[in-house]
Amino acid sequence: MAKSLNVLISGSGIAGSVFAFWLLRAYPLAQITIVERAPSLRLTGASVDIRSSAVDIIKWMGAEAEIRKNSTNEKGMQWVNAKGKPFATLGATGRTDVQSMTSEFEIFRGALGRIFIEPVLDKVDLQFNETVDHYEESAEGVKVTFTNSKQTKTYDMLVAADGYGSRIRGAMLGTHTQEQVHDEGVHVAYFTIKKDLLNGSQFCQWHNEPGGRVTGLRPDPNPEGQCRAMLINVTTKSQKTEKARLNQALAEGNESYMRLMEEMFEDAGWLAPQILKGMRESDDFYCSLFAQTRCPKLQDGQRVVLLGDAGYATPGMGTSLAIMGGYNLAGELLRHNCDIPKVTQAYEELMLPFVKSQQGGAVGEIVMQLLNPQTSRGIWVRDTFMAVLTGLKIDKIAMHVGGWFGFMESKLSLPDYAWPVEGQ
Ligand SMILES: Cc1cc2nc3c(=O)[nH]c(=O)nc-3n(C[C@H](O)[C@H](O)[C@H](O)COP(=O)(O)OP(=O)(O)OC[C@H]3O[C@@H](n4cnc5c(N)ncnc54)[C@H](O)[C@@H]3O)c2cc1C
Ligand SMILES: *[C@@H]1O[C@H](CO)[C@@H](O)[C@H](O)[C@H]1NC(C)=O
Ligand SMILES: *[C@@H]1O[C@H](CO)[C@@H](O)[C@H](O)[C@H]1NC(C)=O
Ligand SMILES: *[C@@H]1O[C@H](CO)[C@@H](O)[C@H](O)[C@H]1NC(C)=O
Ligand SMILES: *[C@@H]1O[C@H](CO)[C@@H](O)[C@H](O)[C@H]1NC(C)=O
Ligand SMILES: *[C@@H]1O[C@H](CO)[C@@H](O)[C@H](O)[C@H]1NC(C)=O
Questions:
Q1: Is 100 buried (19+), middle (13-18) or exposed (0-12) by CB count in 10 A?
Q2: Does domain 2-70+108-180+292-359 fall into CATH 3.30.420.140?
Q3: Does residue 74 line the site of ligand 5, with CB under 6 A?
Q4: pLDDT digits (tens, 9 = 90+) for 300-348
Q5: Of 19, 49, 134, 375, which sees the most CB atoms within 10 A?
Q6: Best substitution site from 70, 108, 116, 224 to test ligand 3's pocket, by max atoms within 8 Å of Cβ?
């Protein structure tokens, strides 16, 4: 079984490529097919963090040095007032075990995706413009029919690593795909501005305005001088019309969302006019809703399993969880000698409780609301609090109660998998 293991991965993102990497470490002869809906690798996105046990895993992958070389070198975060004057600073810690809000491994999603996929590219069959249309479980394997080629093929395992909108998740759980998606009340637009509005500063800067509006700039190491911008709108549960308006613009696409941002941020102080201008000139505009996927299970007791955002999207921790999940799933294959139902069950038992502890239910929402308050008074309270906190250097202590910021640095206890020594 192990030698001829034949696996289908849906999605060539972070989760899919980390899993392929470790699967090939466990079974160098495994046949791996990856189907990707997009016409090419999607190597864009803003910066993502690597935290918790994912830090150990990237070291074991031999990827640490390259990730460091490509990191954004952010020194920390600063909150600024409408005139751009910083009143609170939270530094990066320079350690990997206790990280503050800026991770020591802050890297653009595209650079990270490339680092992960490159070592496996010539060892897998990667098909673009392709998706799983439907599947059927049988004793011999999972029979998959593809959307584009219309072909049907049988695999030992189907791994859904196709992001938070995974249709395989819906099929597996027998629900609408949207049912597991939990709105965090945060809408974000990301884009690269082709001018360094931070004037060389290595600090990420945030500015809050009433109405849950946040403008943010993060440094970009590109020597030509650029920066990454974020426009955020935080809505509460009761703001149904506002939410609907944002969601409709999201559904309508880039142009509609950009127009809404121009309207909403027109009077947002600080560098809002320059940021809006930069948005129009950018060529990587991306907007989305911060959402968690919360699943009652990650496997169907047979051969289908959910990996990464498809099973447990968690803003702030999604990339780290995807790395841990990819490593674990391959490790369990090794430990249970490719007995797939046992493997996926063991993977679920390891991941699901940890995911729940990271998703934190209402706590995450409260933290978001607190960090991005709705009213002038709320902003004043938060700003004063932040200023006092950092002024007293309590930010160093605050890292230890990192859970308060929603970034608990607890680790997943990883089993000791007996990885074969490389090159044997
Ligand atoms: C273009 C893009 C930009 C992103 N930008 C950010 C960001 O700025 N900040 C942030 O925190 N997170 C961002 N994310 C999400 C982040 O990458 C994930 O939260 C995290 O890395 C977990 O990765 P994943 O592999 O589970 O999911 P993803 O990284 O979302 O990868 C899923 C992959 O599956 C593909 N796919 C989707 N549907 C199908 C289908 N039906 N069949 C086959 N393939 C499919 C997608 O094209 C993608 O390549 C972005 C994701 C994408 C796709
Ligand atoms: C994918 O589809 C696009 C648009 O239909 C097409 O231009 C491209 O050549 C296709 N790519 C592959 C690899 O099939
Ligand atoms: C990573 O950094 C190296 C050295 O700075 C650079 O040559 C390479 O292009 C970077 N890779 C990515 C994916 O950005
Ligand atoms: C960068 O410099 C410009 C021009 O002096 C100034 O308007 C702007 O506020 C500066 N940006 C930051 C982030 O300090
Ligand atoms: C953004 O959020 C604020 C409140 O959170 C709301 O007042 C505003 O209308 C929202 N914008 C849109 C376009 O919904
Ligand atoms: C939005 O804009 C980006 C960058 O210009 C582009 O890559 C993407 O395809 C656009 N999305 C849509 C849905 O048009």
A1: buried
A2: no
A3: no
A4: 999 999 999 999 998 778 999 999 999 999 999 999 999 999 999 999 9
A5: 19
A6: 70
